[in-house]
Amino acid sequence: MSFKRMAVGILLFVFLYGVNTAFLFAQNSPQEAPGQLFEKANDLYRTAKYDEASDAYEQIARLGFVNGNLYYNLGNSYFKKGEIGKAILNYERARQFMPYDSDLKANLAHAGSLVNTNALQHSANRVLRWFDSLTQGFSINGVTVFLSLLFVCFFVLLICQIFIPVVRKYTMVMASCIVIFLLAGAFSLYRKIDYLNKGAVVIVKETQVRFEPSENATAYFTLPQGSRVEVIDVSVHWYKIKRPDYKVGWVDKTAIELIRQ
Amino acid sequence: MKNNYVRKTVIILFCGFLLCPGVSFAKDIAFEAHLDREKVSLGQGLQFELTFDNTQDMPPLALPEIEGLQVRYLGPSTRMSIVNGKVSSSITHIYSLLPLKAGNYKVGPFTFEHNGDTYHAGEINFEVIKGAVSSGSASRESAQVSPEDISERVFLVTNVKNNTVYLNEAIAFTIKLYVNRLAVRDIQYPEFSHDGFSVSPFEKPKQYTEVVGGINYDVIEFSVPLFAMRQGELRLGPVSLKANLLVRKEQRQRLPSGFDEFFGSNMLDDFFGSYQNYPLDLKSADIPIIVRALPEEHKPQNFTGAVGNFSMDASVGPQEVKVGDPVTVKITVSGEGNLNTVTMPHLGASKGFKTYEPQVKQEGANKVFEQVMIPLEEAIQEIPAIDLSFFDPAAGKYMTITRGPFPIKVEKPDKDEKIAIISNQQQNKLVLGDEPLGRDIVYIKVSPGRFFTKGRFLFHNYFFLWMHLLPPLFFLAIFLFDKRRRKLQNNPQYARWLYAPKKAREYLLKARQYCSSNDSKMFYDTVFQTLQEYLGDKFHLPSQGITISVIDEVLKSRGMDESVLLMIQGLFRECDAARYAPLALGKDAMLHTLKQLEEVIMYLQKNKF
Q1: Which among B35, B15, B34, B36 is positioned nearest to B24, based on CA atoms?
Q2: Which residues of B lie closer than 8 Å to A, measured between beta carbons?
Q3: Which of A200, B95, B338, B405 could form a disulfide with B170 if both were Cys (CB 3.0 to 4.6 A apart)?
Q4: Does the distance separating the beta carbons of B470 and A13 come in below 8 Å?
Q5: Tell me, what's the ipTM?
Q6: Residues contacting B588, CB < 8 A, separation 6+
Q7: How far, in Å, CA of B80 to CA of B53, rounded?
């Protein structure tokens, strides 16, 4: 087999891979009635009927259709209703889809500043913060595709070094770089998924975090609405939560809501 | 067992005994002073010892200052001995004494209090003579210091040019170290009290010889520029200078006479370095300085405090500029005096110019000022005159030097060019940081965008995940293919072996065709060629050279089945007969040959040789 034929083969493979990925994306996006509901909810919002608007947006989510815009608008509706905790919760949900969106960033910062929770939204660990910042502007799917492409690039590089002597010279360096990016990206993706699964936001005005899952237990600290926490254990009516500064305690299940629906 | 117990007890008691001797013998402490000699030549050192018996816990005693005697503490020496089970210990504090002039000296008596106890030791007298001490040998005497006071042979002299100075007037303060025939080492920079004076760092010391009163001295001269900062009667000094005096050590223990004669005491002294450093702390008297204020009479308006005798040069460049371009005025002030007091000379009316803070550099006895001026109008024709006013302390009056004005030519700026000189204050006004801005959330998204299934992300998709097996598999396939390709390129034997069945199949097909068309000649030619090529490729032999004899030889040695060997030989014979004898072999014979050939190839394919 000549080099040309090999190159054609590689290109064909990359093309097929791209088509398949695009197909999978398309599969993940059922485009049905939610569009109309969304328009209706927007109309309600425009007429300042925020309760009805939030119900309409919630209805779309209940149907199983979600995206960044939906959660963003839902967050806005709650904000207008004065429920800052729920607004932050939905902005956080929107962040899983469009973390790069500047409007979302602005609204999240503004809502956070009103309830003074911005200081405790990132991990206290510097290294973890650095890892989080690596993929801050990427959604979970974005990081997944990025890692997938890096994975393909790694093997394309290995294939190229068989046929192109110049590439062979730099294979070790380039392969090392790709592996480092792959590992860092994988860890970052893990953190994102972990946050998605365990992340929660305080939706009541203020809640006491206690040493034990009991109403009579000693209060450890107080969380204002909109505070981000990580759920690490569940009791019947209680969540065991961890604050970004690693303080752990038990909180009533009704006081917080998980980011993942 | 009992012996062990006794031994342990003795050891513990002994250790305890060693650890706390001060406690055990506090009451029996004896104190005595001792000097190694009673008579010594000037320039020789003495060793003085204060010994405390029956203790090792005694701090060193600070000896009182004795005029003409320099004292240095060398350190403690402890001793412990056990004689007939009786333990005795002592500590000796050792001091070195260096007489600086001849005469009789008295050290002590000593009274020392420690831990509530008082100790006494008597006085010790010794004599320092200018000549050599009689017990010393002739050679040693010559190496010792000659008979004069040390203070006459090493001393400090301080000097200022003028004892009455003006405020801020530069004063050259010189400190000279005179040394006559003495080895003075490790000379440090002098230290002196200078309250009311501003002192610059020492200049590089000068070294020369000078004859004073008929005696030749080596001189080290330290100069330090300074100026008075307040008026009144100030005192400069006293000056203190630290150095080490190298003195020959007195041999305390004499070697046996024979030994001394054999090696020679000088040789041993020189070899083992019998010189000793004695620290010298030379002092000089302080100098009174009367500082006067600058006169108020005739003080120029632009006088800023410069004191000295200065000259000034000034230059301007470039002399032809456009409006907005910078012009640099370079002013160099040089001369004698206190350059620290010289500030930027006064520039006349600078209306029509934008000026910046001047840059100041001091290079030796010159002080350079660079003033950037930007003409803002075309009408400007000159850089105004520059005045430097200073007080000349030698003349006792104020002086003013003027340079300029300097003519310059200012042209219009280029057509579209605007003067872009904006002050910081103006820039600050443009910053909108202070503007009160409202705060609220950003409006909703109008477009719904693409919806996704709730809770489903790309990493949940198994098809997507399984697809990641493709790149490694693809790579593996290409890798193996490349490996095979390389092997075929580099190993012709393998290549021939590998392609032998394929070629054989092609030939068999041809042979079958010839058989069908009943072309016996071509058929046997093809069969012969098939056998030659196949066997040649299979056993890596030249195909053309394969004959019955070669086959016999090669295949037999590889352990081939006899019947197959016979079959191959038969095939070769049949081919030869058909090709070279004009026998018309029928189709059946050809089919039989073809079958045999296929069997042979099949056999060789199945078995490895």
Answers
A1: B15
A2: 439-459, 461, 463-464, 467-468, 470-472, 474-475, 478-479, 481-482, 485
A3: B338
A4: yes
A5: 0.79
A6: none
A7: 10
Q: How far is B427 from chain A (nearest CA, A)?
A: 29
Closest by Cα among B591, B561, B593 to B574: B593
Contacts of A64 in chain B (CB under 8 A): 453-454
Pairwise CB contact (< 8 Å): A67 & B450: yes
d(CA B276, CA B249): 6
Best mutation site among A2, A86, A159 for testing chain B: the one with the most B CBs within 10 Å? A159
Hey, what are B64's tokens? 């009182």
Please tell me the distance from the alpha carbon of residue A244 to that of residue A229, in angstroms, as a whole number. 7
Both tokens of B186, joined, read 């490790």
Q: Which two tokens stand for residue B3?
A: 């012996």
d(C-alpha A167, C-alpha A154), whole Å:
12
β-partners of residue A207 are A223
pTM of the predicted model over 0.80: no
The residues near B600 (Cβ < 8 Å, ≥ 6 apart) are B531, B564, B567, B568, B571
Chain B CB contacts of A110 under 8 Å are: 439-441
Q: Which residue of A has its CA nearest to B438?
A: A110
Residues in CB range of B169: below 8 A, 6 or more apart = B227, B228, B307, B308, B337, B338, B393
Backbone angles phi, psi at B448, to 5 degrees: -70, -30
Whole-Å CA distances, A52 to A67, A86, A92, A193: 19, 15, 21, 32
pLDDT, averaged per 10 consecutive residues of chain B (609 residues), comes to: 54 48 51 79 78 80 78 80 73 83 81 78 81 49 48 83 84 86 82 82 83 81 85 84 75 46 46 66 85 84 83 85 83 84 78 79 82 81 85 86 84 60 48 68 90 86 91 93 89 87 91 88 89 86 80 78 85 83 75 89 83
Q: CA B351 to CA B384: how far, in whole Å?
A: 10
Residues in chain A: 261
Do A6 and B474 count as a contact with CB atoms less than 8 A apart?
no
